[in-house]
Write a structure and sequence with these properties.
Layout: E1 2-4, E2 7-9, H1 14-30, H2 44-54, H3 61-71, E3 87-90, E4 105-108, H4 110-116, H5 121-125, H6 129-144
Antiparallel strand pairs: 1-2, 3-4
The protein binds zinc ion.
C-alpha cells in the first residue's frame, strides 16, 4: 500500500486481492470440519477463528454473537439479518493495522462490507459516521461489560 497525495494506491488490483482472499478462505475451510454448518453457511466459530488467524485480537465466539445480537444485523445500514448471515467487519481495516478485537469488530451485511472495503469508517459513512460511532461505543460497553 502506498500513500500518495493523500490517496491510497494499491499495489494489487482490488479484483486480484479479493480473489486471493477467497482462495485463502476456501483453503482454510478445507482443513477444518467445523467450517460450515448443516445449512451450508460458514459457522460462527469458524468465522471468528479465520479472522483470528488473519489479524489476532481478543474477540471470542461469545463476544461475536453478542455483537451480532446488539446490532441485530448490519451495523452500517441497519438491515436486519441473522448472525449467521452477517460478515465480520473490521472498523479499522486489517490492511491498516486493525485487529480482531471486540473494539474493532462489528456485524455487517455483505454489501456494506464490500463497499467499505479498506476505507476509514468516517469516509465510508460520511455524515452518518457520528451516529454509528455512538452505537459502536455502546456496543463495546455492553459486550465488554463496562
Ligand atoms: Zn449494510
Amino acid at each position: 500500500m502506498i500513500l500518495q497525495n493523500g490517496k491510497l494506491l494499491r499495489e494489487d488490483s482490488p479484483e486480484r486481492t479479493e480473489k486471493n482472499a477467497r482462495r485463502w478462505h476456501l483453503n482454510q475451510a478445507a482443513n477444518d470440519q467445523t467450517a460450515y454448518s448443516e445449512d451450508g453457511r460458514m459457522s460462527l466459530e469458524f468465522k471468528v477463528k479465520l479472522h483470528q488467524k488473519r489479524a489476532p485480537g481478543d474477540l471470542t465466539v461469545a463476544a461475536w454473537v453478542a455483537i451480532c445480537e446488539f446490532f441485530g444485523g448490519c451495523a452500517y445500514c441497519g438491515q436486519k439479518i441473522p448472525a449467521t448471515s452477517c460478515t465480520l467487519e473490521h472498523v479499522i481495516p486489517v490492511s491498516r493495522g486493525g485487529k480482531t478485537d471486540v473494539r474493532n469488530v462489528v456485524s455487517s451485511c455483505w454489501r456494506c462490507n464490500k463497499t467499505k472495503y479498506d476505507r476509514d469508517v468516517r469516509r465510508f459513512l460520511g455524515w452518518r459516521a457520528e451516529e454509528f460511532l455512538e452505537r459502536h461505543a455502546e456496543c463495546i460497553r455492553k459486550v465488554m461489560g463496562e
